Amino acid sequence: MVAKSKPVEKLTEDEARSELDRLAEEIAEHDRRYHGEDAPAISDAAYDALRKRNGAIEERFPKLVLADSPSRRVGAPVSEKFEKVRHALPMLSLDNAFSDADVRDFAARVRRFLKMEVDAELALTAEPKIDGLSLSLRYEKGRLVTAATRGDGRVGENVTVNSRTIDTIPVELTGEVPDIVEVRGEVYMRHEDFAALNERQAEAGKTVFANPRNAAAGSLRQLDSSITASRPLAFFAYAWGELSERPHDTQSGMVTWLQSIGFSTNPLMERFLDLDDLIAHYHWIEENRATLGYDIDGVVYKVDDLHLQERLGFVSRSPRWAIAHKFPAEKAVTELLAIDIQVGRTGAHTPVARLKPVTVGGVVVTNATLHNPDEIERLGVQIGDTVQVQRAGDVIPQILGVVDEKRPSTAEPYAFPSHCVCDLQTPLVRETTAGGVEGVVRRCTGEFACPYQRREHLKHLVGRKGFDIDGLGDKQIDWFYEHEDENLRIREPADIFTLQKRQADSAALTKLKNFDGWGETSVRNLFDAIEARRTVPLDRVIFSLGIRHVGETTSRTLARAYSSWKSFEQAAERLATGDEAAKAEMEALDDIGGAVTEAVARYFSEDKNCAMVDRLIEELTVEEAEAPAASDSPVAGQTIVFTGSLERMSRDEAKAMAERLGAKAAGSVSKKTDLVVAGPGAGSKLKKAEEFGIEVISEDEWFERVGQGA
Q: Is the same domain home to 143 and 284?
């Protein structure tokens, strides 16, 4: 049995390592297709299932968690059509629960993190999870000044003018309110309004919408605000961002306050002390969801006490104090017409099932991922089969299995390719773990010699988490990559930044402005956008290189640790030569392990990679990493290691606390460690700190140092 199909509890450590690697790559590819290309390849249910398996493996094997794990990622693209707005506080995603047992596990995790007794009172709120578009509204002196979509969680789209046309969004707040109030909630469309809108669209010969969520999102994100004004949108408020003053100390109190200042809040939100009552409320909402008049896809639970929320804090993708209990997926049956191969940035060959269009939950779906050849074998699927597909939420489907009795005589088994689908025909390989377990992903080893991978690397570099170059999306990269004129061709990162100069030297007829889809204005805008990215933060440069296992969170960690490009490059080059001190130094950083150091070493050991990077860096000014935000803290900028049994807080809470104070929480002691906080039972880390002459303090002394003594 392959690791892909094994229950998590039966995986060996080597199999788990291989699975986490596969899942990280597969989820990242689906994120890119959904967010970057608006062309998802799997359903929300399939996507949730991948994340759920990833989370279950991480929980069982915490030491194997990858630095670029999907559990640390969040986001959606910011459209080039709108101005961008940076959120004062990030808008993050929620982790998911899929069963009553998952909800009980969530409550237990919260208690463990806070070092509460297993039966200690814990108040939770429960409210319907609206299936709409997240929106953040900023009020200054009581008046609406900015409205922005969530975007990638840090930067969203400015939709202020459109938001002012929604009746349930007050332009001015009622009563006395703090100077700065940032209200967050969901824009949605009621079922009866959606039906009436589609009827009008059909009568006018215009496109009808697949579901209320798509209708709401499309209506809010109109360049012409009069179109938004003509659409029946509504808004539920349920959270907040920046506040110059917080009126209440509980989640339920804050939501009541939001209603008092002019917002609609969901009447089904309730506060519970008993977990059985909380779960019963979920099932009541599930049974009555069809009568609500608007779409929901689950119930959200939040810790009610805001002081406890602050202690719980966040992981990079989501808050520890909230979870979304999702409803079961919807299913349908359709025909599998073909299987295509998609090549990712790291050479992974992913089979994609092309389906006869079928409506599942109000959305027409046409494709689904088949993950890898082992999954095709496990399902026993053949081209021409009738298959059962499942969908939940707003994305695409997963294939559950074959309807055997409907298999036609013309059905054909699918032979997975043994060589890359590019012209090089490089043999595909299955990587093995250190323990000799063979992975399930077939990968082309051609890397930058493989045109698919080169192209995907370029798309990765210009994407929103990389250089974020407006006007240079996937379609444009494809166009430039395939162009025959060398003065227009983009085949490596530096080519992007030499494009304008090469155009200046080219013949008149080969000027970019003369080609279909381009004009003087669009060309000027593109060149301006490229020039604006010649100065770029260090973490974005590291992320943009496309080093395997080095995602957004890891890039920020590395940038913060090494501060400058020169320091990072020197560390990477030392790694490439097998320098053990450089490896120990990097692995001492919190949440960075052998997978990252090996990937960085492998990347910088290739001469062609180093030359390509050098050519890129010559075109750039790389900004040094920002100093820690909490610069007035006595531990700001320091590297802290917690070891031993902490008695007043859990280890996770200690790390979260250090990071809030502007410090770096490291997992191991090195010569660059500034302080070790040791509890009872501290062992090798304490001994190493003493060898290096590093200051060691107790947990009580830690609280005194940061000004939070008992």
A: yes
